[in-house]
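Minimal example, chain plus succinic acid.
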Amino acid sequence: MTGIRLTAPAPGWAIDADVVVVGSGVAGLTAALRCAAAGLDTVVVTKARLEAGSTRWAQGGIAAALGEGDTPEQHLDDTLVAGAGLCDEEAVRTLVTEGPDAVRRLITTGAHFDTTDSGDIALTREGGHHRRRIAHAGGDATGAEISRALVEAVREAALHTIENALVLDLLTDAEGRTAGVSLHVMGEGQHDGVGAVRAPSVVLATGGMGQVFSATTNPSVSTGDGVALALRAGAEVSDLEFVQFHPTVLFLGADSEGQQPLVSEAVRGEGAHLVDADGVRFMLGQHELAELAPRDIVAKGITRRMHEKGTEHMYLDARHFGAAMWEQRFPTILAACRSHGIDPVTEPIPVAPAAHYASGGVRTDLRGRTTVPGLYACGEVACTGVHGANRLASNSLLEGLVFAERIAADIAEVRPPRTEPAEASRDADDLVPLLAPEARTAIQRTMTRGAGVLRSADSLATAAEELEALHREAAADAETDGAKAVVPGVDAWEVTNLLLVSRVLVAAAGDREETRGCHWREDRPDRDDAHGRHHLVVRIAPDRTPVVHRTETAAFPPVRPSD
Ligand code: SIN
């Protein structure tokens, strides 16, 4: 275990619990509710408000074999195809077989899904699905409804929650087993500044890392904090090179940065067409499912057409829906487009791909255990093996739900005893030097240029050099008399996390010398099944260098069990 940590003050306060859940999306709150229901003293820590985070932005829905004639086996087949040869079949089987009941339990918890006239759950289609199997709520506000129901349940259960809290590092006991987290709480409340929640089980459910790119559908809190924490704690991460770019994000100008409005794939599921400026449907003939091909294929199709035409975006044409359907089925998207001066009822919507989802993350087994004893991960921060090289649309809320329940069951069964965190080393070699908050834009531009939709050996090498220069600068500043060293604070910790996950992502993307799933190498345009059917597992060496290891096969290697 490397045991390196962010430069931060020592915790000034501490509370004790059986479990600390970090994050408040579908995965985090489901894990917390189930742990609490099992009688475990559970604390939820979240970076902003409970309702912030990625779940509430999810539009399309949650995929599960709930429709007549649909089966988990068919859902499995579609997931494996999207995952381009790298899914862990056992993990996918777990997802698709446990998924339908997990959705029904979510309904029991209080989530209201849209229904048909006969009262059944209404199901739509999205890319890569051969059937209508996406349950949705409020038309295109599925995540918001799930978040509302879970937050309400957490409040009713009176769980101990700490909001506006950025998690810093894992605490471990003398044996290297999980003993809690250090965190920084911003603002008023009973806890303030850097403190600790001491607990023998930590569940990371911190969401994604879309903010490593300039334009993303992710909210500003998605800075890869969980992956960075896990790496510093010595955990393995996997498949980080597979960043999913959502094909249809509202195009607000080439310079528009930060969170961009999503135009759900469900709009295409209901019959919208992708067209170029001449009105030509360019996805026809590229895939049997045309606009509803798996997401990577559509993102590539759009990007290729943009290059051919020398334009910065394509169009999504759904004028034929008419005003009533737009208002009833896609009210969120309609409002977002109109707020930017575009009326989808009367004009095609300008769209372009943007970073959307990390298919990889902290490596776990089917119980959500990571390679660090007592540390669990679920939701976007985790890599369970379900997504392989490309996540199938609307499998993410389901994955968060199913694996959060499994984690809670595992903790409830193991019930590890509480232990004391070991004294943290103050040795300069163990402290990660902080980056100035201004480096955020530089990292995002480097990543967008070098490791975006289109990658090559050259673009990745340039990105790696630029990121290493930032890393060296921070280390050199920290080694001087401290005059230039960055003062610890939320912005500095976040940007330091962004740099770490970017360096690891670029190292993995450089090592994967083929095009597969959502990893598109211009210089290696083909999938190479003879040499590419492996996972890239990365950990951080004590000198903070990413060490990339190729697994023997596409099967996910076992995770060392937690005790
Ligand atoms: C969408 O609604 O297009 C997003 C769904 C997803 O990311 O799975």
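The CA atoms of residues 307 and 343 lie 26 Å apart. Residues 58-60, 264-266, 357, 393-394, 396 surround succinic acid (CB under 6 Å).
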